[in-house]
Amino acid sequence: MRHFSPIKGQMMAEQVSLATVAAEVGTPAYVYSAATFTRHYKVFARAVSSMDSLIAYSVKANSNQAVLSLLAKLGSGADVVSGGELARALAAGIAADKIIFSGVGKSAEEMRAGLEAGIAPFNIESMPELQQLNAIALDMGKTAPVAVRINPNVCAGTHEKICTGRAENKFGIDIADVDAVFERAQDMQGVRLRGIAMHIGSQIDSLAPFASAITLAAGLIERLRKQGHKIETFDIGGGLGISYAGGDTTPPSPKEYGDLVRRLTQDLDVRMIFEPGRMIAGNAGVLLAKVLYVKHGGARNFLIIDAAMNDLIRPALYDAYHDIEPVNASAADADQKTKMISYDVVGPICESGDTFTQHRMLPEMQAGDLIVLHTAGAYGAVQASQYNSRPLIPEVLVKDDKYAVVRKRPNIEDVLKTEHVPDWV
Ligand SMILES: *Cc1c(COP(=O)(O)O)cnc(C)c1O
Is pLDDT at 1 greater than 60 in this prediction? Predict the structure, then answer.
């Protein structure tokens, strides 16, 4: 069931008309569906339910407090990659012992905050990082629970900017070096190594890379145990791809993914940790925007909309595909009278990269029409910037027939107040 679909020609988010949201909140805005977040979480939980497991939602996909609170109530843990995300997860009511701290460059302050909160575990990615964590834990009189993030040298076959599992990527510790890390950690009183972690990339659209990486890691776990090390958790990260509809990917279902993981890990006797991000949040949000101008230039038709690459950078950064639909679809009814036009959909920013799509066939549109870019719930609002001095756009959460602004739009005065002109200028 889709929670962003038209009723009587009007695009809805659950039972709320997007035209109403646009009129009351303004555009551009992100609009999320609580029902979709809930359904995705439950589908994933069911897919892994036969395993002893923890689902640690990857906060960086969508870190709005309302979203995190919703997921916390469903029982989700959190995978965080910064002190800021740690604070968000705790503030949203996610129990500290369900919080995993990932990331290749944790600062001393971030380690202290994690130890203070009592999170479990830190996924460490280098020997110097482990040494620093050990020193800080000793200083605080604590023992840090640790998993070692390995680099399985598996290419996830995804966009190069979101492939993280190859040897030349900055992530993880080479599998061949992991034994030595466990060995040296035996002399460190501030850390307790009890797990293996990995995360090989994002928007992965086949099971093969997962299978290769899990098989390698399973071999490593057996080898470490033979050396006398205790391995209690196996964190396989996130990365399961989703459908961007008109895009050309058909990723495996959560059930196929869960079945594969169970088959490859059932004899390991470990607690599994999953860190889904995009799978939970991607299709739970749209970017709602308004057509400012229709410009006919050269051989092209441009739809100039009020959203831009600073609001949603995925097309510019990853060549990402987003389905685009008019909010008022009456013009696009099945009466075949709708004129379809090839448009380049672009934002107002002074860069050619500020292009959401080129040569997209869409119903003919006019200035003032509203459109949605689908599948914008993950890596959308969280990657927004204020480039071109465009303040961050609001986020709206819908549930059934009600909605709330869950992050308000700052005005430019708020933004200017954060800056200071020294009197010596
Ligand atoms: C980004 C990230 C995830 C989530 O990836 P998705 O592709 O959104 O599922 C999980 N774990 C780590 C360590 C990450 O960096």
Answer: no
CA distance 271 to 279: 21
The DSSP symbol for 102 reads -
Strand order in the sheet with 16-17: 6-7, 10-13, 16-17
Using CA atoms, how far apart are residues 346 and 107, in angstroms rounded to an integer?
38
Instruction: Tally Cβ neighbours within 10 Å of residue 386.
Output: 12
Choose which residue among 125, 196, 199 to substitute to test ligand 1 binding: the one with the highest number of ligand atoms within 8 A of its C-beta. Answer: 199
Rounded to two decimals, what is the model's pTM?
A: 0.95
Q: Which residues contact 42 (CB under 8 A, 6 or more apart)?
A: 74
In this structure, the residue with its CA closest to atom 3 of ligand 1 is 238
Q: How far is CA 246 from CA 242, 333, 375, in A?
A: 12, 19, 11
Work out which ligand 1 atom sits closest to the CA atom of 204: 7
Question: Domain 4-31+282-416 has what CATH class?
Answer: mainly beta
> Which residue from 37, 58, 151 has its CB within 8 A of the most atoms of ligand 1, so it is best to mutate?
58
CA torsion through residues 7, 10, 14, 16, sign:
negative
Q: CA-to-CA distance for 305 and 54, rounded, in angstroms?
A: 41
106: closest CA among 119, 125, 120?
A: 125
The Cα 154–Cα 177 span in angstroms is: 16
Q: Are domains 4-31+282-416 and 34-281 of this chain identical in fold?
A: no
Please write the tens of the pLDDT for every residue from 122-164: 999 999 999 999 999 999 999 999 999 999 988 776 677 767 7
Class for domain 34-281, per CATH? alpha beta
Q: Determine the Cα angle at 120 with ends 406 and 233, to 5°.
A: 120
Q: Where are the domains of the chain?
A: 4-31+282-416, 34-281
Other beta carbons within 10 Å of 96: 16
Q: How far apart are CA 347 and CA 115, in angstroms?
A: 43
Burial class (CB in 10 A: 0-12, 13-18, 19+), 7: exposed
Output DSSP code: residue 298: T
